[in-house]
């Protein structure tokens, strides 16, 4: 299944539909995998000099959402039904985070995928998330 939305389309969708969080994220690429940057700022940090779990959770969730939309089009009501996250190592507080989303299965009503999160410039995975999304029966935007 080919792409229905490119990186620029996904960024525009995020800015239009979710302006409250759009400034925190940058869509880097869309394709077999979707890459997204979380622009880490003071609001994402926790004591101990690390990026907070909720910030990493948000990166994983938004990256998978946009990866799915890149394949099915701008379906606003696709929703997370499950997420499991493994925190593997402490991310560097002074660096943005990069989430790479991969769709493992895209069905008519469910999508399953995973997201690997790394500190920008590093190959070491700091967190891994497995996600399941429910896709509404009517995919009209």
Helix content: 10-25%
Number-wise, the strands total 8
Low-confidence sequence ranges: none
Overall SS class: alpha+beta
Distance separating the two termini: 19 Å
Main sheet record:
6 strands, antiparallel
Mean pLDDT: 94
* Strand line-up in the sheet with most strands: 1-2-6-7-8-5
Q: Please tell me how large the radius of gyration is.
A: 14 Å
Query: How many helices does DSSP assign?
Result: 3
The shape, in one word, is globular
Strand content: 35-45%
Order of helices and strands: HHEEEEHEEEE
Overview of the structural elements:
25% of the residues lie in helices and 38% in strands. With 141 residues, the chain is an alpha+beta fold. The strands form two sheets. Strands 1-2-6-7-8-5 form a six-stranded antiparallel sheet. A hairpin with a 5-residue loop joins strand 7 and strand 8. The model has no long low-confidence stretch (mean pLDDT 94).
Question: What can be said about this structure in brief?
Answer:
By secondary structure, the chain is of the alpha+beta class. It has three helices and eight strands, in the order H-H-E-E-E-E-H-E-E-E-E. Strand 3 and strand 4 form a beta hairpin.
Summary keywords:
six-stranded antiparallel sheet; two-stranded antiparallel ribbon; 25% helix; Thioestr_dom
């Amino acid at each position: 299944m080919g792409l229905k939305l490119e990186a620029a389309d996904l960024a525009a969708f995020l800015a239009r539909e979710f302006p409250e969080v759009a400034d925190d994220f940058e869509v880097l690429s869309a394709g077999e995998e979707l890459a997204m940057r979380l622009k880490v700022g003071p609001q994402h940090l926790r004591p101990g000099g690390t990026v907070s779990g909720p910030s990493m959770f948000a990166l994983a969730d938004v990256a998978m959402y946009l990866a799915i939309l890149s394949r099915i089009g701008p379906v606003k009501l696709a929703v997370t039904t499950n997420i499991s996250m493994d925190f593997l190592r402490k991310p560097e507080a002074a660096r943005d985070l990069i989430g790479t989303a991969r769709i493992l299965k895209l069905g008519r009503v469910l999508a399953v995928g995973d997201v690997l999160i790394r500190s920008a410039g590093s190959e070491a995975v700091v967190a891994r998330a497995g996600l399941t999304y429910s896709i509404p029966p009517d995919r009209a935007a």
